[in-house]
Design a protein that fits this description.
Elements (H helix, E strand, L loop, with lengths): L12 H18 L11 H20 L2 H7 L5 E7 L5 E7 L10 E13 L2 E12 L2 E15 L2 E10 L5 H4 L7 E2 L3
Parallel strand pairs: 1-6
Antiparallel strand pairs: 1-2, 3-4, 3-7, 4-5, 5-6
Helix pairs in contact: 2-3
Length: 181
């Protein structure tokens, strides 16, 4: 691999002083509370979680049209799972609706952490995945969402596949599990 280095000319005198002052002013302006966006409202957070709820329900009902409609075209999936040779394996692939296969699936999540800023949002949550009526694994789901004219949609997803993690991550109170179906 070739590494390219870039040399920058040394600034002297007034040019250097102006650059430092300009940078400081821009940093101060960028950090100014006057420009800060207000915190996300509870309704923004609930709208984001509604998309995740619909996504989980669509997994359980094999509704691939809904799954596709909730995803942004060109989105990706990144998965970390145990490797057959020890450690973990991380794979990244484009979301392709045609690769979805029907099955007896169920996925539920709990205690989501939601961050919303403008038209982007992130959800980080523990989950449990069942296949064929029994637990397959638990892990962490991460959803990156974007707000379009039609509403919130999932741009990218990441998750861990942790077959032995369920006892440690399951909630003690089943009332915290989503979606409620």
């Amino acid at each position: 691999m070739q590494v390219t280095s870039v040399e920058f000319p040394v600034m002297h005198g007034i040019a250097r002083t102006l650059r430092i002052v300009s940078s400081a002013a821009l940093m101060n302006l960028a950090c100014s509370p006057a420009l800060a966006q207000p915190a996300a409202s509870a309704s923004d957070q609930e709208a984001v979680l509604s998309v995740v709820d619909r996504f989980m329900t669509a997994i359980s009902t094999n509704d691939f049209a809904v799954l596709s409609g909730l995803r942004v075209e060109g989105g990706t999936n990144t998965v970390e799972r145990p490797s057959s040779t020890g450690g973990t394996l991380v794979t990244r692939r484009a979301f392709t609706p045609g690769s979805l296969k029907p099955g007896e699936y169920r996925e539920r999540y709990w205690d989501p952490i939601v961050h919303v800023r403008g038209k982007i949002a992130v959800v980080w949550t523990a989950y449990e995945f069942w296949q064929g009526g029994k637990t397959s694994h638990c892990g962490i789901d991460v959803f990156e969402l974007v707000k379009e004219e039609s509403g919130w949609r999932i741009g990218n997803m990441m998750w861990t596949v942790e077959p032995d993690a369920c006892p440690a991550v399951r909630p003690a109170d089943p009332g915290r599990v989503r979606p409620k179906s």
